[in-house]
Write a structure and sequence with these properties.
Layout: H1 2-9, H2 13-34, H3 43-57, H4 67-85, H5 98-101, H6 109-119, H7 124-135, H8 140-147, H9 151-169
Helix pairs in contact: 1-2, 2-3, 3-4, 7-8, 7-9, 8-9
Pfam families: Sigma70_r2, Sigma70_r4_2
InterPro entries: RNA_pol_sigma-70-like, RNA_pol_sigma-70_dom, RNA_pol_sigma70_r2, RNA_pol_sigma70_r4_t2, RNA_pol_sigma_r2, RNA_pol_sigma_r3/r4-like, WH-like_DNA-bd_sf
GO molecular function, one term: sigma factor activity
């Protein structure tokens, strides 16, 4: 097959047709041995995918190296891609998703109490802005709009509130 590959790289169309024919006969059992009986029908698809890859990547073949090693690498990559595409993945019907997405907040209750206690040291509006932007993931623009203030004013309020909280826990004054 190496001789046919070299001739086809040099422009011999007849050698290229013969190479593709021999590769087809070689690759069918190669993939059939690797596929489970449930996926045996995919062997022909893998052969065609590999032949297409050989065609599109034939210029990457190093003439000084064995052809079958290069071919096996291409075929192996096509086989791995096939296995990844057809891997069995567990699925959950949408009707049964409640247990999957249900959150157990009991462990977070103490954390919420701690956050509420810490935020009680700043004004209620500042505390709410900090809670929305830092804990709930809202943007500055969203939090500012909820309080009827500009983004700049919201940023300043959040900054001053966080600075006061840091000073308190660092042992400094507000």
């Amino acid at each position: 097959m190496r001789t046919l590959m070299l001739a086809s790289l040099d422009g011999d169309a007849a050698a290229y047709r013969q190479l593709l024919s021999e590769l087809t006969r070689y690759l069918r059992p190669y993939f059939a041995r690797r596929l489970s009986p449930a996926h045996a029908s995919h062997a022909e698809d893998l052969v065609q995918d590999t032949l297409l890859a050989v065609h599109t990547r034939r210029m990457t073949y190093d003439r000084a190296r064995p052809f079958t090693a290069w071919l096996h690498a291409v075929a192996h990559h096509k086989f791995v891609d096939h296995v990844r595409r057809h891997a069995i993945r567990p699925t959950v019907p949408l009707e049964d998703d409640a247990p999957v997405f249900a959150a157990d907040d009991s462990a977070n209750a103490a954390d919420r109490l701690d956050v509420d206690a810490v935020l009680s040291d700043v004004s209620p509006r500042t505390a709410d802005l900090i809670r929305q932007t830092r804990l709930e993931g809202a943007s500055i623009a969203e939090a500012a709009a909820r309080h009827g203030m500009t983004e700049t004013a919201a940023k300043v309020s959040i900054h001053r509130g966080l600075k006061a909280l840091m000073a308190r826990f660092a042992g400094g004054e507000k």
